[in-house]
Amino acid sequence: MTYSVTAPHWLSFNNDNYPARGGPETKWVTDITEIGTLEGKLYLCVVLDLFNKLIVGWSMHHRQDRYMVIRAVEMAVWQRQERHHVILHSDRGTQFTSGDYQRFLKQKNLTSSMSAVGHCADNAACEGFFGVMKRERINYRQYRTRNEARADIFDYIERFHNPRMRRRLANQDSKFTSLLNRP
């Protein structure tokens, strides 16, 4: 039996009631986008770390359902370096409000956070990633099959986007270190 729940909005950076602060693996956002192929639609769910903009979990399927979303979050959980508490923010889509999804988050010690109805700006980081991915890659391709799209999206996330974000973070770290080491 499935049921639908909602969650409070924990993502606010000014929220003093929750201890998670800036740093990796403290605040994640998740969302779903649609990619067209000649074979039919393919849905991509990502989990994005707000600190470093890395895609820490993702899943693709021809149906957008709660199981696709759970698989994306499961990947993010497997890759965690630390085991401290994480806020996972989403919109109020049925996949994210399902009882199965909410139980999974509790089992993995993740705090569910959801936007108020009509406040889509909280997922701007995910929407921004989807927009850049579509501008840089997907809009220039016509995928014959879902498998062709899956392979290309995998390549984009793991061989282009995430390495680019890691380089950006390394450059910021080196600039900060050079400022600290000034006489």
Automatic annotation (TrEMBL):
SUPFAM superfamilies: Ribonuclease H-like (SSF53098). It holds the Pfam family rve_2. InterPro entries: Integrase_cat-core, RNaseH-like_sf, RNaseH_sf, Transpos_IS3, Transposase_IS3/IS150/IS904. Residues 20-183 form the Integrase catalytic domain. NCBIfam families: transpos_IS3 (NF033516). This is Transposase OrfB. It comes from Vibrio spartinae.
